[in-house]
Amino acid sequence: MKYKKLGDTGLLVSELCLGTMTFGGKGIWTNIGQLEQDIVNQMVKGAIDAGINFIDTANVYSEGMSETMTGKAIKDLGLKREDLVIATKVLGRMGPGSNDAGLSRKHILAQADASLKRLDMDYVDLYQIHGVDPLTPYEETMDALNTLIQNGKVRYIGCSNHPAWKIMKANAISERKDLARFQSLQAYYTIASRDLEREIVPMLHDQKMGLMVWSPLAGGFLTGKYRREGNEDSNSRRINFDFPPINKERAFDVIDTIEPIAKSKGVSIAQIALAWLLHQQVVTTVIIGAKKMDQLDDNLKAIDIQLTSDELSKLNEVSALPAEYPGWMLERQGSNRKEG
């Protein structure tokens, strides 16, 4: 297992991160997973034994159950809190009231305390805003997050599911007001859907921010279960919950290219899809979640796969984004102004 700096900090996180969206199973999250505590404990132990030190959850996952089960697993296993990097999130609705959602100071401070109580911890290492709140000014949100750091409840802050321009706006506010800034972005990125590369990846490089990848297997589409012939198991996740959206014909082309590479190495399609992400410079950590231990074990093996330059070239070519403006114009105009 390799460890990388999270953004522009000295915090080292494992290149794979254990995702906890499958823990519990309540409300809409029953479509993702319904793991009970004994299996959760096994998964946390398996991840830690493999070298993972990073666990990601959120207050909305199974309406708080995921945080509770994560904290209990850590206690049950006797893990040292100081050896772990724990991340959680805030934004989604956690009650019926008008202020039980969003990124207001009131909601952020209340939910940070609620998350700490469920996790049974004094602090979280990374506190992330889970998306955009169109009602709350970023000045209010960033000030509230900074308060959590000053009070010792949070070590670093990050964001998730944000466009590049809003991240830049938030970081500019932090710089102007001398507040903590975002050190990471948690975002959807996969070889089957590389939209992130248009605007967000260049921004992450410029801002020295880390990237935490969610749904690296495109909501299960890259697990090897899906083929153009449509012979997948009726219980497969995408049959019941077709998310995130992808261009399936393009994704099938990707699978067709991955398959012979996977066969030549004696590994799974999922492992090659994960390995491709681990070969991308912008990626800090890839979040892996599972419904079964054998799925987790398979994903963990991706760290051992080395892709050759020829294999990467084939994978990059088949998954490349169609050219869009202004990207093609920037490339044309800047072609004679590159270093080296």
Structure report:
- The chain is of the alpha/beta class.
- It has one domain: NADP-dependent oxidoreductase domain (TIM Barrel, Alpha-Beta Barrel), CATH 3.20.20.
- It is built from twelve helices and ten strands.
- An eight-stranded parallel beta barrel has the order 3-4-5-6-7-8-9-10, surrounded by five helices. It has a two-stranded antiparallel sheet with strand order 1-2.
- Helix 1 links the parallel strand 3 and strand 4.
- The longest helix is centred in the C-terminal third of the chain and has 18 residues.
- The two termini are 33 Å apart.
Topology:
Blueprint: E1 3-5, E2 12-14, E3 16-19, H1 37-49, E4 54-56, H2 65-76, E5 85-90, H3 105-119, E6 124-129, H4 138-150, E7 154-160, H5 164-177, E8 182-188, H6 200-207, E9 210-214, H7 237-240, H8 248-265, H9 269-278, E10 285-288, H10 293-300, H11 309-319, H12 327-334
Parallel strand pairs: 3-4, 3-10, 4-5, 5-6, 6-7, 7-8, 8-9, 9-10
Antiparallel strand pairs: 1-2
Helix pairs in contact: 1-2, 1-10, 2-3, 3-4, 4-5, 8-9, 8-11
